[in-house]
Amino acid sequence: MGSRKILALAALLLLAGCGTMPIADLLPGVPASAHEERAEAPVWRVGSEWRYSDGYGLKVMKHDGALTTFQRLDDPSQWVVRRGFLREDAQSGTTLRKLLFEDLSTGAGTTLSSKAPLTYRRETLSDGVQHNHATSWTVEGRRTVRVPAGEFDCIILVMRTRDLDHDWTGIERWWFSPVVQNYVRMEYRYGKEEGGSRVLMSYRLAP
Questions:
Q1: How many domains does the chain have?
Q2: How many CA atoms lie less than 13 Å away from 175 in the CB half-sphere?
């Protein structure tokens, strides 16, 4: 098919209300899966902060090489360390969790792709109890969303984790904005607890 015919086909589909479909998906012979979405973990800067609808808030307190430490604004006793998108050590309201083991290559977790889900095992120590988890991150696509903090083009990321020794699973779905350097919406469920969600109310990026 000539380039003029392809352009004409794309124009007709746009007029028909298919304008949200990626152009790659309109080309004959190119499957939808051929279009790759990628998410790059930001280089977070000390002082950046995000506040959410449920009162939850985060602030970057330390950036050391590949590791970034976030402190809770609503409860400064709580914090989490991330390597790219991946969580490592964390302090919740009641539990200190230390990462013991991950079977990941160097640099894994800084880039996520719709073509290659990231799957790995990790072992953590929480209150003297060792946990063995299987975890995956996948990229579901891209969507423009509107929240109180503004309108943002987002990449949808999904984290799933399962305890290999106990009946426990967790899931987080992020609408991640590269502009905001964080999720603008998250849906979550951990174990048998009731799930929840939060949306971004305001944010400030450090210079």
A1: 2
A2: 17
* Residue 17 and residue 58 share a domain: no
* CA 39 – CA 140 distance, rounded (Å): 11
The reply to whether 22 and 68 lie within a common domain is: no
Count CB-CB contacts under 10 A for residue 50. 24
Q: Show the domain range for 25.
A: 3-34
- Residues 45-84: pLDDT tens digits? 999 999 999 999 999 999 998 999 999 999 999 999 999 9
The CATH number of residue 72's host domain is 2.40.360.10
Q: Give pLDDT, residue 34.
A: 64
Burial (CB < 10 A; 0-12, 13-18, 19+), residue 159, is: buried
Q: With a cut of 70, say whether residue 17 has pLDDT above it.
A: no
Q: What angle do CA 125, 63, 183 make, to 5 degrees?
A: 80
